[in-house]
Amino acid sequence: MILTEQQAIRYWFETVHEQGEYPFISIFEIRQGGESTEHEFFHGSVDGIGSMLELLSKRRDLPLIIPKVPIRRDPHHIIIFFAFLRYLFRLPLFSEEWILKTNWSPGTPEKPTARSYLILSEAETEEIGNRAKAAGVGKNAYYLFFLNQALDSYHKVTRSKRTWFIPVSLRSGEEKDGEGNYTGFFDAVLDRETSILALERLMKKRLKRGDGYAGRSAMSLGRFTGAKIWKLLIKLNRYLQIRTGVFTNLGHWELEEGKPHSIDWVGLPPVISYQPFGAMTVKVGKRQSLGIQFHPRLSRDPILAEQVLQKWTTSMLGK
Question: Which of 173, 185, 230, 277 stands 20 to 30 A from 33 (CA)?
Fold first, then answer.
């Protein structure tokens, strides 16, 4: 059976789930007073933006404005082809090893418990934006640079580098609902000596030359191979692509003017054993939220996650 692009992506996450992983996106609604509600979405069915759109379709009382997604035109197929070749030539990926380790073993999917999040104040959000601007970099590079530094003490010091999986939304602007995973990705590779400006240049270069589309091609390769071969490639992938983790930004969601706002939003991306750390940021109105989690093979301790999140935040604010 030949799979469609969306079927191939869904099949990838279904197979990963069968292997004992927990590939779900978590979106938290946090009300004034601290009460929170967690919503989970299977990543094979929706991407990060899709999960927000799915929530909003059921909660029309919320004063959030759906961002206008720019109409994207796919690069020429030759550009995508060569970007895909570059992606293949970088394999296999072996990132710097973690010091953290638990007694986790593949089997029944286990939901992460070493997780933490916070919502920055308007002043803190503005301060981070100003500091990124002063450093001459975009906010995503700023976030990732200090996140990578916050994890230094949890890695072995080796010659290896850290490879970060960076999702890229490739929605065309015509997808109005949450159904479907329209995400591509590129890898940001950096070591302890990588400067923030070097990281900014790397991220821009990967985006400009179409690496996000190459990543999407890799995620949906099963539309050419068929289900059986695709499943075999997915199972082999855990030995070929060992990343530090995933960092993703769900963008800026504006608030409707004049309407009361009593709910904040936080997101957590899926983590898998060979990509065991996840961080997500989303801005609602004038406030940025940050969320992180560790795969159970690294830790099940929420206090550890809280410490890392605090270290990440204070370093970005220059405290």
Answer: 277
